[in-house]
Amino acid sequence: MWMKFFRPEAGRLRRGTLLALGGLTLALGGFWGSRYFTGDRATAQTPGGRRPDAPLSIPSTSDYQNRVVAYIGDNTAVTRQELGEYLIARYGVEKLPTLVNRKIIERECWSRGVVITAAEVDSALAAEMRGLAVDQATFLKMVMNKHKKNLIEFKEDVLRPRLQMLGLIGSRVTVSSDDLRKAYESLYGEKIEGRLILWKRGQEKVAIENYTKLRDNEALFDEAARAQSTPELAAGAGKIKAFGRYAMDEAIEKEAFKLRPGQVSQLIELPQGVGIFKCDRRLPADTTVSLEAVRDRLTAEIREKKLEVEIATAFQALRDQVKPQLLLKPTEKTTTGPLPSPSSAVAFLGSVAITREELGEFLITRFGTEKLELLVNRKILETACAERKIVVTDAEVDARLDADLKNMSVKMTREVFARDMLAKWGKTLYEWREDVVRPNIMLGRLSEGRAKVTEEDLKKCFEAHYGERLECRMILYPPNQQKHAIAEYNTIRDNQAEFDRVARNQPVPSLASQHGKMPVFGRYSLGDENLEREAFRLQPGELSPIIDTPQGKVVLRLDRRIPPDSSVKLEQVKDKLTAEILAKKNEMEMQVYFAELKQNARPRLLLKAANVPQDVVRDSEKLLKQTGGK
User: Fold this and answer.
1) What is the rounded distance in angstroms from the CA atom of residue 625 to the CA atom of residue 619?
2) What is the pLDDT of residues 519-568, one digit of tens each?
3) What is the pTM of this model?
4) Helix/strand/coil percentages in the chain, nearest 5
5) How many whole angstroms from its chain centre is CA 540?
């Protein structure tokens, strides 16, 4: 919120990824969007290739419809078009604006002879890592996890377009002596520290009525600053970080630098409403730093900031020229029948069409290798269902989805589920329906009747629920801490307080938050016979030996043994236990059955990954060495 108060030319810039992923996003709004803008194959923008503004609605002469990306068995081929349509259904609406923006930039680059090579993009990637002072693995984790982008997206949808736009407008930007003077004054000149109360539009009358008493009463000013309707200001009691000249909204700055400590400004007209500023402190200029000492750094920062603004302006002008129209609409359910024509339009730039084939290829470049196996698995299931004449309707999928939502610990609607849960995983409701719910129904129908409940199953399930149970605490040492487990075992065994301390501070958050306490469990319920056997050997207060598990070394302390519940007989709960066992066995059987289907289908995936993380680490290390980085 506070960036709204700062002038466009103010503030120190950080070059690098944070600029590309943060500042430019704010500056360009819809242009960059949630997924920024895009570039793709370098050949598409070279003067020797097809003109980016050439009509695309003519029938395609490519092999998009027939080129095979996978085989299922000996006779069933999966084509590039099928993969493209699979991806369009899931990501098309979200990613189409990115493709449109890429085309707008490409078109201008072609007409102006601006060419960005793959080597330039790779060099920019190396510079981004060097600028952030992190190693390659950390950089990749930041991009992939925090910004929900894979490597190709980051290179082609962030770095390349920025380089393209710099090639188009870089010569327009100059840094004047006045720019330098203002930047120097902003950073090293006198600064003001104070508090702001902001009344939003429509509250001007309230501001006028309260102005005098707030001006003359510090306690009332503080109370109003904490209670104001702007959350970001209220959280800090209205306090604004110390700022110099040319760094803040001009109206606030003009009033602020008139004040002495303790004084309150007149009412200030602001874009957001009306406010008053109280000066708490005036900080003297830093006379230890001269302009000459920081001239080069300030020049670079001012240039970056000006480029940011100029890129936004230039792109908006390009966009206004072509007036893009996006035709693709969101879908919630899968469609059947023939595949759409590859040459049909999904968007227009003026009179020039962007086709389904172009969008499909764009998505395949970014997600094809990752998602191809999911498409192949879906086709294996569909083939098996067709052979058995099994049809899963949209109504069945909707019913299962609604039942799943109803059975969640927190009841939620589809809209809330999509917004609060799926969005965090980068998934859509369409993906959940078609890639989770529908395949589960299909597998359940295919494997129906394979699971059986035996008397032995019933006895074990009854024992787990109603037999003797244990209350334990666990310390889990991950595989890389096994030596540490052995070294401190005697201490935690002989010292209850030390066991408690280690349990609270162990590296597994879910256990540490509960001080190591596990849910109460009976026999046949842990899924690890060795761990369970050692647990039931203990008496209250005893510590187990160090136990090997797939997750690492485990030490258990038994707190309590709970005697069996003799009031419940097996016959009384037989139906309930049978249903529980059957549900669990069906889940396991579905996995086994699909493994059999896949083994029989012998799928072969032909699409190769490009720019995988290992490749970029290796290539970037080489580039960093060439450019003097570490």
Assistant:
1) 10
2) 999 999 888 999 999 999 999 999 999 999 998 999 999 999 999 999 99
3) 0.70
4) 55, 15, 30
5) 46
